[in-house]
User: Fold this.
Amino acid sequence: MRTISIINQKGGCGKTTTSVNLSACLSEAGRKVLLVDLDPQGHSTLSFDYQPDKIQFTIYDAFATSRTNTFSWDKVLLKQSENLYIAPANLLLSFLERELANYIGREKILLARLMELDKPFDYVIIDCPPSLGLLTVNALTASSEAIVPIEPSFFSLHGLNKLLDTVRLQEEKTGHIIKVHALVTIFNNRARFDRELLREIQSYFGQSLLRTIIRMSVKLGEAASFGKPIGSYNRSSIAYEDYNALASEIMMQEEYCVTEDSGLALKPQPIDGGIIFRYKNPEAAAVMLAGDFNNWSPDSGLMEKRDMAGLWERLITLDPGTYQYRFVVDGKWIADPSNPIKADDNLGGVNSVITIG
Ligand SMILES: Nc1ncnc2c1ncn2[C@@H]1O[C@H](COP(=O)(O)OP(=O)(O)O)[C@@H](O)[C@H]1O
Ligand SMILES: [Mg+2]
Assistant:
């Protein structure tokens, strides 16, 4: 399962439009998608023609019942199609910040709830509010990726440093990596200003900028006002073309990500910031990584459980070279089952081997 937050504390940059239409296009392409509306304004909810104020159970319940544990996803999820479900939001969500002020662990509530999902989703897309408060922090804690929509305007680069600092802070707190992708939205190729700003965005984000650019199209606003994703409103629009291209680009990255049932790509992979080690075992209570890069000391290689399927992850920065390692699963030392390259440890056991660079 890939959990992707759509974040930017700036309003009006296309978070909701991207959440709704990316979710719809991914679901049309056969992926099982959950769209979580995490904005008290309920714009994603409205975009699917639901009246936020009239909905009894919303994503608010996922947070508010955290103390009593009586929450059930079944009451909250609205089925849109075979492959698309929505967790709606309304204004109640805006009270959470105050209600949970003294609740220890308030930043991890959504992560814990997503682990309780019993439907096999390929993607969870989270439409975040225009702030970097508790709700966005919950979204980031639950996410392995974030898409930052940026619309070319005088203020659009302002605040990005703060946003990226918030992401890094969450990474440090949780020990898991959040891969950030920037997405240019509401782009007008005929405007010189937009073209110049695009170059600035390209040099700011480099490889992290998604290749797809979402062009300006009035059809997107029209579709939302009719309570439909673009594919249900106008399939010949450039907006439908662009959001399909975005969905394809995101799906192209799947080989580097692990989905719940594929179990693919578990062997160590280079990503931004280092090498990611992955191990899958839903039964394990604690998994650590030990190798010659950390003096075979498992305590410094704690792995983080990422989802209900028991995916464990750890990112390490490594210089080019060849390294040996093992996982320590509930105290038992094992070689990496998904890495075919092994070496004798001269003590009668086997280590896994990776070569970097
Ligand atoms: N590619 C686009 N072309 C034209 N208008 C757009 C585009 N994307 C979004 N909009 C419009 O811009 C406004 C803000 O978009 P929205 O997705 O609600 O932003 P956010 O969720 O970041 O506040 C909405 O009126 C929306 O219809
Ligand atoms: Mg919005």
User: Anything to note?
Assistant: The two ends are 29 Å apart (CA to CA).
